[in-house]
Amino acid sequence: MCSVGGRCCRRFLVGAAICALCGTLGLEFFSPSVSLAASAAQGITARINPGGPENWPPEQGLSTQLPGAQAAPDVQPAPPVRELPPLGTQGQMPGTPPAPAAQPATQPAGQPATQPGVQAGAQAAPDVQPAPPVRELPPLGTQGQMPGTPPAPAAQPAGQPATQPAGQAGSQAAPDVQPAPPVRELPSAGTGTESPAGDKASPAAAKREVIYVDEQGNRVEKPVDPEAVWQEVQSCLEKRQFSDALDKLRILYDLPQLTRDRRLEVLYGISDCLWEMYKDKPQAGYDAIVASTSEALNADLRHDRAPEAYARLGKINLRVGNMDEARANIMALLRQYPLSPLVAESLTELGEEQLKRKMDESAAVSFQTVLENYPESASMEDAAMGMGKALVRLGRHDAASVIMDFVNKRWPRCYLEDTDFLLVQAENLQALKRDDAAMDVYWLFVNLQPRREGNNELLLKMADTYTRGNQWGAAALMYQRIMDLWPGVSSSRVSRLRLAEKGIYDGPLHYDQMSALFARPTEDIPLERVYREVMEASDTSPECVLSRLKYAMWLLWDKQFTQAMGSAADFIDNYPEHPGVPQARDIIWTAFQSELTNALAEQNYRRILLLWNGFPLVRERYGELDPKMRYALAQGYMERGDDAKGLELLGAFLTAKMDPDYGELALTEYFNRYLKAGAWDRILDLSRIVAAWPLRPQLRSQLEYATALSAQNLGLWGAALPRWRQLAMRNDIPLYQRAYATYFLARDAEMRKDVGDAYVYNRQVIELFRQLADERSDKADPERIKESMAALMDICEVANRIPEALDWVKQYAEFVPDAASPEYPGLRYREARLYRKLGDAVRAQFLLEDVVKRFPGTPFGKAAASELRTFEVSRDLKDFMPGGAAAGPGASPAQNGADSAGSPPANP
């Protein structure tokens, strides 16, 4: 390497000779056909790398002149150069391609050189003169030898012609240039011999690193030695340094000059390293492992490691859950390499993974293939045990028993390696109803692993087996032992339930079965307390969830219907997918039916409505409302104040066809509400709807009375009078109805001016309403009596039956005993008038004076005063009339007709 220009002088040196320009050791051969004179013809600043770019500016060419030295005008003859051994053989630098063999010294000067790099120069100068003898360099690697190079061959004699330097190629083109003198022999590298210039060799020159450049002169990395890298890979693999090995394998992977076998080894090596790095975390390395293994497999499908590639693809797909792809790779391995030992191993792993994923049928097929075709494989034991597990899961207990007998005979101590196989055996024995043998296997498992996690569940299962076998004593001891050793866990709570219930009461539960349990007397803690404590321990544990359902059943059994409905509804809401939901629905329905019966008996309709609205399951199961529920809900709504909703429900009963149970009740409810509200038109509509109903006579009479009353109030007298006449003549209707019917007939007679009918009906009205008053009926109406008496006073006065009229006045006065009544002055005034008509002027005058005195400012007081004045005028007038004084004051006028009192007057 040139220490001046920094570029390689490989095209100017002979072998490993010293550079004539800068004294640096060369690196490669140059063509002997190139003349040294041509090299001398170049200027010192000329380009020293003919292999560089063709457009390189000459003025920028690198110089070999040392700093401070003058350029020599004439090229001095070089000393004799010692010949180096051919590179690529002994003395060849590691990593360089083999150089062609050097021509013999006796070769004619005109013959072309054998170096491929300088043949062009040899053809351009056919008359090259032989070079002077070159002195042989000492063998590199000994004293002064470069490390790593083999010994050089012996030096030629001084007089023997040496291989012509490359720089001599242009000697004919420069005839003025003299041949170079013999080059002085270089001292051995590493010695203290001085150079011809008198300078000592620099120690750093021998240790200077080798720099590699490309054809453009650019620095490049040192070429890779594939064999050395491969040895490093093997060393990393032995040390299990897979990441480092993978990096080096990728370096080899990128080399194009690898042989086919070595490339396959590299591909499988990459797959091996990736597998070792990611086999415990397959998700992270899945893509890399599949890609590298598939590439290795596809590079040569007949390679010795192809079965391993198929098996690896199957394993990685199994570990990430790609069951279809895993099975496809393993089946390809089975078809193409059926004799490979990896087939049985891969099929066994496939079957085990299928077992984990509950693919029991497929797992049985995988294991059976191993058992039938590879009976001597190392995976035979695992396949047989897996086959037994698969058959037990599939319910083929007889076949499983055969397989397990085979396993126990061929590998009698296999359970020491896989103790879980004992659990499978015991389960199969229980399925075959061989409980005693199963318990022996269970006890063997417990004794082999007494501290195993999960033994509490196993002991619970064993205790349940004893319970089902009517060995309650042993079972109770085991339940108690579980509660003592594992408090607070699921098995402990189940054990407590077993001891409290003295048996196994798991789902599906039936109320009849649980009712018998609840009726059984308890010796220790009451069952409902146990249920509450267990259900409060957890919201998700199966035994706690089941205890909630049992508690709801107990509430129903204890006749706490509302609480039972609430508990069952909570169970359904919290665990809608639980298999006990149908039983919870039955609890709600049964409790509601019982509560409905009680509420109807108590007429507690609001409670029924509350339950109906609070439990949608009741409404769902009840379906279409029947008359009983419809009436109860209607009454509940009306009691709650929602009359519109209640009447809407009752309206379904008011149809042409009468409901035998609730039709009359609905009619009565509507009728009373209409009557109270004075909805007379609605009453008439109601009567038309139920006209054809077979009502009870009393209800029919009531409806007819209400219809007549409605027509009367609406002014439909033509429709009302016929009904009043019928009602007035009936003795089977309530007295108040007859009284009112007669009252309306009396008013009708008065309107028609029928004095006779009016007299008769009013007397009947007074009689009927007085009877009601005597009976202290709430229907007694004094106002109706007063109205009829007033009417009779008018009728008798008009009929000139004054004494009877006075009698009705006296009876009317019984209802106006106090002078403070507003009716009192009018009654006294009327009485005075009647007495005056009767001819008792003194009585009349007394009454009038009393009215004037007590009620002077009232209309009746004023009328009485006016009447008194007429009295005086009449009296004075009588004194002046003929015979006036002869008339006695006690004479009774004959025209009064007092003898006719009590009989209805004739119509005017």
Automatic annotation (TrEMBL):
Name by which UniProt lists this protein: Tetratricopeptide repeat protein
Domain of life: Bacteria
InterPro entries noted in UniProt: TPR-like_helical_dom_sf (IPR011990), TPR_rpt (IPR019734)
Region feature Disordered, mapped onto this chain: 49-205, 882-908
Leader sequence segment: 1-37
Keyword field: Signal
Compositionally biased tracts (Low complexity): 85-94, 102-128, 138-147, 155-177, 882-898
Lineage: Bacteria, Pseudomonadati, Thermodesulfobacteriota, Desulfovibrionia, Desulfovibrionales
